[in-house]
């Protein structure tokens, strides 16, 4: 008993994010190879272990310049997010075992640690520091690609992420002046402060019109970097929304739009990693709706869906990353027929795809139904229709198109080797988790909350979802057989970022030209006025001017005589 | 022909290879059609309930799946004509026009 009593305070000294940060500082000191790989694996495992053992409660409460900081708040909601972040970091470390790039390894640990820290932050100031940590650390996973395009993409990404942080801290400061509190708890939209915090979270959550950074930056990351990027930032934003704005009705409509719109892009997008980014937006939409509904079951559904989404989306990014690793491309027009030589990667991709389509017995099904049920129960009929529509459309892009275009479809003639063993292990483990959660959902539910009592496998759910997906599949087959499916075509699709990358640049150039012209005109006018003034002075006072002219003595006598005569006249008048 | 290249083809690859054999597509489509019919027929075997009237209709989700897919495909095709651009549209400030990355072993 005494021994156990001593263990807990020792564990409490190790804040999980600091374990990541210590690991990140140690990594450059360890030679590349097995030892370094082991450290990158151990760090998330130890952090998860500590998190598990400390139990629920508030740890490390400190006063800083009169502010009450809660560095580690472990409750049901924060723990599940922090744990899945550790799990994602662990799986990514296996996937990235071949990596010898110190920058990416350090950035990954700082990024994951910041995400874990933010999830555990009990106050808005602590949350802000970790929030910025995720932004700064993650950009190196884009820059590590080492191309000019990646450099510029990283700059755009950083501008958006830091911009979100600036809005957040401004909102937090206003919130503190307004309420006298920095506690990170449920807020009500209404004041400028809460709106600013809401927008800051919305930017990272990729709300409509704020979403372009995700489509721009994730496909620009390194092969392992994109797997890591897909796991943390947006899900952290979902957690923050669930913590701060649960039950905000506006989120229901925002989420519905997020779930529907990407389908129209994803089906004709050529870059398969960007197709997956569109699918990320769809699933974020589901989660945002759940947060907006704000009921207990909806919030459990959000937490659960974040977990399964991190897993199956990581799996899909891993599979397409493995294809990119072997072939050098992730574009549909360059791929096809890879099942011949990459059969295991094909299998894992198919499992990820079916999970994302929420087929019964796969992970997506057991959490998506919770959010759908709650939307229907709350009588948001249009929103419910939008979510069901999005559920069918997901099958089209990430459920069918990604595995088909990469591994089946038209033979590209490429015969790459199977993915390296460590990548297969990472994909295999992740695929296994997708299946285990799908078949035994109570294992996940128990981690979300012991109070979560939900049965996804009702007859109505199963038949409805099977019908939806089978008929969507039938439609796909009919379109494919009749040649009516949109053909693959090289190119990109314009998105909202066009407004600042092209239109904004154009308007800036035109505005700059206009300002230059106006300024030139003003300066020209002033110069001409000044020149005229100087010329005038020269005319009167210059060497040739009237004032400088020499006058004869007689003229002066005449002037004085006239002056005297004038004085005489004035005296007599 | 590429499909005759069996170098390094594993057992799992052979299973996947079945999909491309002549007649496989017919089997798959037939199976799919039967599965679709069974899934709609399943609706008759239990009492349907839902929060909206539409949920309780026979084959409601089937119709939804078909309509959703049709809408997405038709719209996406037209949409691409409007917003599709060349890969190098954003020039050097984007990765889309770049060739193979150094990190691959391709």
Overview of the molecule:
The complex is a heterodimer of chains A (573) and B (106). In chain A, helix 2 (16-26) packs antiparallel against helix 5 (102-120) and helix 16 (363-377) packs across helix 18. Chain A is mostly helical and 573 residues long. Chain A is built from 22 helices and 3 strands. Chain A has a two-stranded antiparallel sheet with strand order 1-2. Chain B is an all-alpha fold and 106 residues long. Chain B has helices at 11-17, 24-42, 60-83; one strand at residues 84-85. Chain B starts with 10 loop residues before the first helix and ends in a 21-residue tail after the last strand. Chains A and B meet through helix 7, helix 12, helix 14, helix 15 and helix 17 of A and helix 1, helix 2, helix 3 and strand 1 of B.
How would you summarize what this structure contains?
The complex is a heterodimer of chains A (573) and B (106). Chain A has 573 residues and is mainly α.
Strand tally of chain A is 3
Q: Give the low-confidence spans of chain B.
A: 1-6
Low-confidence parts of chain A lasting 5 or more residues at pLDDT below 50? 1-7
Q: What percent of residues of chain A are in strands?
A: under 5%
Structural class of chain A: mainly alpha
Q: Tell me about the biggest sheet of chain B?
A: none
H/E element sequence of chain B:
HHHE
Overall pLDDT confidence of chain A: 92
Which terms summarize this structure?
heterodimer, A: 573 residues, mainly alpha, two-stranded antiparallel sheet, 3 strands, disordered N terminus, B: mainly alpha, 3 helices, flat
Topology (SSEs and partners):
The complex is a heterodimer of chains A (573) and B (106).
Chain A: H1 2-12, H2 16-26, H3 34-54, E1 57-64, E2 67-74, H4 76-95, H5 102-120, H6 124-143, H7 148-179, H8 192-204, H9 212-217, H10 223-244, H11 249-260, H12 263-266, H13 272-293, H14 296-327, H15 343-356, H16 363-377, H17 381-407, H18 421-439, H19 441-448, H20 459-481, E3 492-493, H21 498-541, H22 553-572
Antiparallel strand pairs in A: 1-2
Chain B: H1 11-17, H2 24-42, H3 60-83, E1 84-85
